[in-house]
Amino acid sequence: MTEGQNSGGVLAVLIVGAGFSGIAMAIRCREAGIGPLAIIEKGDGVGGTWRENTYPGAACDVPSHLYSLSFAPKADWSRMYARQPEIEGYLRDVARSHGLLPLIRFGTTLTRAAWDEDRALWRVQTDRGEILARAVVSAAGGLHHPAFPDIPGRESFRGAHFHTAAWDHTVDLAGKRVGIVGTGASAVQVVPALAGEVGHLTLFQRTPPWILPKNDHPIPEARKARYARRPILRWLERARLFWRLEVSALLGFTRVSKVTAQGEAMARSHLRKSVADRALREKLTPPYRFGCKRVLLSDDYYPALQRPNATLETGTIARIVPEGIAMADGTVHRLDALVFATGFDVVGGFLRAEVVGRGGRRLADAWADGMQAYQGITVAGFPNYFILLGPNTGLGHNSIIAMIEIQVRHVVECLRALGRGHRSIEVRGAAQERFVERIRRSMAKSIWQAGGCRSWYLDRQGRNTTLWPGSVLAYRRSARRVRLSDYRLE
């Protein structure tokens, strides 16, 4: 179905989510003449993760010129690593400049999507009514439903308590006793942002992360002007950043290799230069291999933990009590506020809404033994249904925007094939199984399986269904072009 056509109020494409992937999908669909289309977004603005995560210190750990759409460059990024407000503003500007805002239905949450076999379309239920669409693209991602640790007594705490992904800006933390649970990417950013403001900060650490220097800095005005005046310089900077990160994967970042040892040496050097106290260094040294969990970047995390008003607690939490956190050794940390920096429910995020495919089969049932999708995009039994940033398409070494753009191109090709007189396009089960088996073989030798850690990358069966086990170039070769022989066209 082409732009401007409308068959009885049926959309050609419904996109779920207005973050990076949803915006990219809509732009490329319009460029290809695919329409009519609409975007539904549960929030009140564009930005996705970068609209919702507004905790103090929120920023990207991928360089700004690489963490942006290749076809929507920005010459005047303010810093080497952009902070949350600037990234949200960038996405808002991209949506506005490409005329997407009239297509977005804000404050609209997907509750159920069911395939109508007779009419070959999706019946999408939202909290604001039904939408009919020939194809559905899920651009919601997996990083938008907060995960809380399994600690008893959380609701008994008398003080303010919230997740970093749902920061309560009405709570004044100045001078307060604040506890932070978690030591992942958000904790490494929020700890330095709060340490100078609160009365006392206690960080509850279960496992320390590997941390490398970030070397963040403002981008000089003269360089911004050069990027605006000569776009080729901006393109070369983006290419330089891409290859600097990509080389790590090509040399073996995704498995135990010489790169693993080199990364550990760099991180240990950063820790040694930042922390003089040997006992504290030992507490902050990970017991697993570099890369097994997400490697973090920070210049101010270690200094923040050495402030006189900061405590690193590495004991076992027994429970949360009304006055604070009780440890297994009987110690009670009295707190005024409690912050959970404990990441997201990735699998649950994909299955929050019910998706029902051919023959009444639910996506939750198809994924009962673990998430899987052909190229991380399509699932057998779910015609005309596409997932962006789906299973095994996350990255541990480079910009996720590169993966989004590869997937968007794949989906556009599928939609074009669908528009050539076909009712449906569906990946063949055998093709999906071949792809999944290839992933399993690669994962068996990966750093995430052999690195000696348990991370959010792994599902309940201990399988990594989150990350891509190779380079961006390898994924581009695999997914950029559609092999129609792997699909069934009706």
Write a structural description.
The protein has helices at 20-31, 49-52, 84-97, 185-195, 221-229, 231-251, 258-274, 278-283, 301-305, 346-350, 363-366, 400-418, 429-444, 447-450, 472-479; strands at residues 11-16, 37-41, 104-106, 110-116, 121-126, 129-138, 160-163, 177-181, 200-204, 211-212, 296-297, 310-313, 317-321, 324-327, 332-334, 337-340, 354-356, 385-387, 425-427, 487-489. It has 490 residues and is α/β, with parallel strands linked by helices. The chain folds into two domains: 11-145 and 345-489, FAD/NAD(P)-binding domain (3-Layer(bba) Sandwich); 154-210 and 254-340, FAD/NAD(P)-binding domain, CATH 3.50.50.60. The strands form five sheets. Strands 1, 2, 3, 4, 5, 6, 17 and 18 form an eight-stranded mixed β-sheet that branches. Strands 7-16-8-9-12 form a five-stranded parallel β-sheet, covered by helices on one side. It has a three-stranded antiparallel β-sheet with strand order 13-14-15, with no helix packed on it. Strand 5 (121-126) and strand 6 form a beta hairpin. Helix 5 crosses helix 6 (231-251). The protein starts with 10 loop residues before the first strand and ends with a strand. Mean pLDDT is 94; it is low at 1-7.
